[in-house]
UniProtKB/TrEMBL annotation:
Top-level taxon: Eukaryota
Pfam families from the UniProt entry: PK_Tyr_Ser-Thr
Database matches in SMART domains: TyrKc
Keyword Metal-binding applies: no
Gene that this sequence comes from: Ntrk3_2
GO CC aspect terms: axon; plasma membrane; receptor complex
InterPro entries: Kinase-like_dom_sf, Prot_kinase_dom, RTK, Ser-Thr/Tyr_kinase_cat_dom, Tyr_kinase_cat_dom
Residue intervals of the Protein kinase domain: 1-139
Keywords, comma-separated and alphabetical: ATP-binding, Nucleotide-binding, Receptor
Protein's name in the database: NT-3 growth factor receptor
GO BP: cell surface receptor protein tyrosine kinase signaling pathway; cellular response to nerve growth factor stimulus; positive regulation of neuron projection development; positive regulation of phosphatidylinositol 3-kinase/protein kinase B signal transduction
Record keyword ATP-binding present: yes
UniProt organism field: Liparis tanakae (Tanaka's snailfish)
Amino acid sequence: MAISSPKGIMGKIFITHFITAGCCPSLSPPVGGHTMLPIRWMPPESIMYRKFTTESDVWSLGVILWEIFTYGKQPWFQLANNEVIECITQGRVLERPRLCPKEVYDMMLGCWQREPQQRLNIKDIQKMLLTMMKATPVYLDILG
């Protein structure tokens, strides 16, 4: 995987995630009868105020990383949409996947800071990912 720019990586992640997500059964019911939103990937400010920013994209990236390390589980799979909204707006975050390295989960937590300005920025995430890619590989026991 070649990483050329934050916009490039985010575009590839978004497109891949959108295509692999299927018909999005986890979308919330229409808001005001018009719009369906992917609440399981949204930060509190997007759920409560429909505010979408680069910082809300960073939150969603954290959720996508979680999906990768759970081999494609749906975020908050055990909860109904209204329960997901309650969890996110109350400050709960997804648990660390069993096979997720600590430094990757720490990155997820950095993406899930409640205050948007406290979240990691995309340039820092790119640097962290590049550093991890250059490190000695740690092999995961996916059968254990």
